[in-house]
Structure formats: C-alpha cells, structure tokens
Design a protein that fits this description.
- The longest helix is centred in the middle third of the chain and has 14 residues.
- The protein is built from seven helices and five strands; from the N terminus they run βααβααβααβαβ.
- The chain is α/β, with parallel strands linked by helices.
- A five-stranded parallel β-sheet has the order 3-2-1-4-5, with helices on both faces.
- Helix 1 packs across helix 2, helix 3 packs antiparallel against helix 4 and helix 5 crosses helix 6.
- Helix content is about 55%, strand content about 10%.
- The chain starts with 7 loop residues before the first strand and ends with a strand.
Amino acid sequence: MTFEKKPCYVIDASVVLKWFSRYDEDNLEKAKKIRKDFKERRIDIISPELLIYEIANVLRYKESIEEKVVLDAINSIYEMRILSSVSQMIMEDAIKLARNFNITVYDSTYLGFANNLKYPLVTADKKLYEKIKGYPGIIYISEY
C-alpha cells in the first residue's frame, strides 16, 4: 500500500479572514477553495498560533459582527487543528526576515514558520506579497 503525500501550505491571517467575509472581496473564492480542499483532505494547512490572535483582533473590531459570530469563527479555527507553536529558532528567523524585507514581525513570523517547515506560504496580503515575492515558496492567493 502506498500513501500519497498531500501538499501542505502555511496560511496567514489574510487568507483565513476571507473565510469569514461577508463581502465580495478579491480572491474570496480562492480562500474558500483552500478551506474546502483542507476539509476534503486534499491538502494540509498549518499556521503559527499567532493566527488566532490576529483573527480574533480583526473580527473584534468589526462592529457589524456580533460577538457570537466572532466566537464561532475562533472556535472553527481551533476545531481545524491547524495552529502550531513558534519556536525560538523560528522567532529568530522571523526577526531577521522582518529587518531584511522591512515588514512587521507579525508578517515575518508566518514567513519564518513556513521557511522552517519547508512549506510554501500562501498570503492574500498584496502589500506583503510585493515586498517578499522574491523569497522562495511564496504564493499569492490568486495563484493557488
């Protein structure tokens, strides 16, 4: 019996936020396809634990979203079991990457995390993508 290894991707908060969008945003269908492919076990996804804080914070500040909806969104992410802790080595890499690319440590944490795991990083953050697109393993969501 042979097992085919599924592709695995690191996703950042910009991708996950689209899962909870109520608007017709750019690449919304691509973001939903990533979630669908994961649920149907076509791919694996993983993200640093930082993701849950970013999602909770952004959704909390959207006045049009009720607290119960925010809690349901957070619970759904936990249920997916995609969150992983960030090691000291990843954090050190993230700080170097943040300085090299002039990006936030929040953004570089995803990049360092993906780099450490040797998985591609999928982002829907166009400004971030433009700053790091020369770095190996970066996928803008429209290319998924």
